[in-house]
Structure formats: structure tokens, C-alpha cells
Amino acid sequence: MINKKIAFVVVFIIFILSGVTTFSFFTAEKGQSFLSPVTYKAPVSENGTTETVINSEPKTEECPLNGQMLSKTERKIWESQRPLGVMIENHKEARPQSGLSSADIIYEAVAEGGITRFLAIFYCQNASYIGPVRSARMYFLKFLEGYGQYPLYAHVGGANTDGPADALGYINELGWSSYNDLNQFSVPYPYFWRDYERLKDVAPEHTVYSSTKKLWQYAKDKRDLTNVDEKGVRWDKGFSPWKFEDDAKLSDRGKVAKIDFGFWDNLASDFSVVWSYDVKTNSYKRTNGGKPHIDKNTKKQLEAKNIVIMFAKESPANDGYEGGHLLYKNVGSGETLFFKNGQVIKGTWNKETEEDSVKFFNSSGSEISIVRGQVFVEMLPIGNKVTY
Asked: How far is Cα of residue 215 from the mean position of the Cα atoms in its chain?
């Protein structure tokens, strides 16, 4: 009995010391500047090519995820890697976020307490800063499973309970742990870091950042994951892409100029969303909580070519978590509103299994094509009102 007590004390001391070390590692003393490990003299892509060179090249190559036309240099880069999903929070103190404008696809849903969170999918473009990065949730994992074999998943911890919202347990069940799962608690500096200068005077949980370049490099060097896995299997085996189309002609564009909705009524003022259609650019600009939603990397308002409203059944996990973990039934089918080209298409969404990509269909049952460019999927509880 005494030996067991001594062993417990030793383990407890090691745990405390490791926690202190981790906290000190990510924390700057008050008054100190915490320097990010991604400070460039000029914007640089993964292969060392400046963004100026990339931007000057003809856009002849189709991104497999959202159909956006990009350069041959960018294609050479994305063909050497696999999709990367990053959890980015949307707490008021986390704004403006970094990197959302560079994502190919973004999913938004409530994480807890009416506060939404984003799963940003990167593959064809790079973001030198992404964040603030936060914790995993079960339904975002279900979306990510649709992106082929072993998509990368970057997050800081996650829901870890005995109930159905156990995201970390599910990651382990999938066989992702310590492989394609890039949990900050197991991936060291400088792949994740805290940056107290990027968002000043906010709580520490809103200060974790990373970069797509560093995460893809870590996956390659430490996990042997590039465009193929350690067994040589391509990431896109079994992946079913969306259908793509060019922008509608100016004369064919519609007049649905505004999309307005909230997630939870009690927090409508902070998390309400308005997408405003610009007929000239054929894109939608995002307002969040009554203010233009800005990407700190570009200093520009978030803008997407496609806005998809997915209605899904929301239910509490009832797992005893104080903040209230949630569940969304995003495997199966449901109603959808698809906005593109200034028009709205009423239809359905379908995701037959966890491994399938979510697809969108019109009232006649035909798959809806994506206008080339960023796709923003908003998952709302069934019954929520959307004004347009």
C-alpha cells in the first residue's frame, strides 16, 4: 500500500511539472513580446516561391475541393500534400481571425453556449497565420471524414467525456491519434504557438496560432503523410468531389441581395450573420455580430462565392459538461438553402455515411454545382429562420 502511495505521488508530481513546463513554454511574461516563428521578409509559399510570382501566373489549374482556378505553381504544391482541417474559434475576443479567407471550404456551427466555431479546410492555398485554434467537436469530425483518407486535423484538445460528444475518443477510434490528428497537446512548438501581440488583451485560450506551411511540413517530416500515407495510398482514394461551374454572366445573376440569420436567439446580437451579395464580383461579403468580418491576414472582409445553409437536428449531449456539449445530426439528409449567383436554390443535403462528402441537391434531385471559389457552409438547427 505504501509503495502504491509513493508511486501515485511521483506520478502526480511529474504531471504537475509537465503542466508547468507546457504553460511556461507557451506563455510570455507580462510585458514581454512573444515572437511568432513565422515572420517573413516577404510572403513566401511552401516551395519558397514568393506570392508575387504565384499571383502573376495564369490561373489554369482547378482546385479539386472548390473548383477555384489557380496557378501551376500552386497545383505543384497542393499535389504534394493532403487536406488540412483547422478548428478556428469565433468568440468575440477571437476576432479578427487569421487565415479564413485562404480556406477552400469553411463549416460553421455552434460549439457551445451559442458561440460558433469554424472548421476551415485548406488544400489548394496557404495561410501563414491560422487561428485562434481551438478544440475539437464531434460533428466537425464528421464533416472532415468526407475528405478522403486520413485528412489532417489541427486543434487544441477537444471534448473528452463519457458521452456521445467524446471527440477525442472518436479520433482514437478512427485510428487518427498521433497520425493525421495534429492535436496541439502532442505537436510541439514551433508548429503551434501563442501570440499575445496578434490579439492583445484577450484570455490565453484565444492566442494559439499555427500556419498551414508548418502543419503540412510536420505531417510530412514526423508522420510520413504527404499526398500519400505511409503505405503509399493516395489521400483522395474514395473521395467524391463536388461539381463546379463558372460565374454566371452578369445578365444572368439574380437579385437576392442579403442573407440574414442567427444561430441561437439569446446571442443573436453577437453571432448573427449577414451575407451581402455583390453583383459585380458575384460574391457574398460577411458581417458577423453587426460588423464586417475581417481576416487579420489580409485586412479585408471575408468573401465567399457560395453560401450553403444546412439545417440539422441539434440536441444536447447530456454528458455533464458545464458549458453544454452539443450534437448535430450531419450524417443522413435534411433541407438546405443554397445561395450562388445572386439566387437561392431550395433543396436537400445528403451525407450517407461518415466517410462520404456532403452533397447538395435541388428539388428535382440533381446535384447543385459549386461556383468556383470559396464555399461557406452554415449548419443551423432545424427550424431556425433565414431571411433573404
From this structure: 14
- The burial class, CB within 10 Å (0-12 / 13-18 / 19+), for 237 is exposed
In whole angstroms, what is the distance from residue 244 CA to residue 376 CA?
15
Which H or E run includes 5?
helix 2-26
- Pull the grid cell for residue 346: 431550395
Within a 10 A sphere around the Cβ of 252, how many other Cβ atoms?
10
Quote the Cα angle for 159-163-167, to 5°: 30
**Quick one: CA dihedral 43, 45, 47, 52, positive or negative?**
negative
Question: Which tens digit of pLDDT belongs to each residue from 185-227?
Answer: 999 999 999 999 998 899 999 999 999 999 999 999 999 999 9
What are the Cα distances from residue 130, in Å, to 69, 133, 201, 328, 346?
A: 22, 7, 19, 25, 33
Could you give the CA distance from residue 245 to residue 366 in angstroms, rounded to a whole number? 14
**DSSP sequence for 270-337:** HH-EEEEEETTTTEEEEEETTEE-EETTTTEE-EESEEEEEEE-EEE--S--TT--EEE--SEEEEEE
Mean pLDDT of 228-249: 97
Mean pLDDT lowest among 10-19, 128-137, 235-244, 265-274: 10-19
pTM of the model: 0.89
Per-residue pLDDT tens digits for 27-60: 333 333 344 565 433 345 444 555 677 778 999 9
Domains of the chain: 59-223 (3.50.90.10), 245-387 (3.50.90.10)
Residue with cell 452578369: 250
How far is it, in rounded angstroms, from Cα 178 to Cα 175? 9
- Specify the amino acid at residue 179: Y
Residues 6+ apart with CB under 8 A from 201: none
What's the chain's Rg over C-alpha atoms?
A: 21
In sequence order, the β-bridge partners of residue 112 are: 115
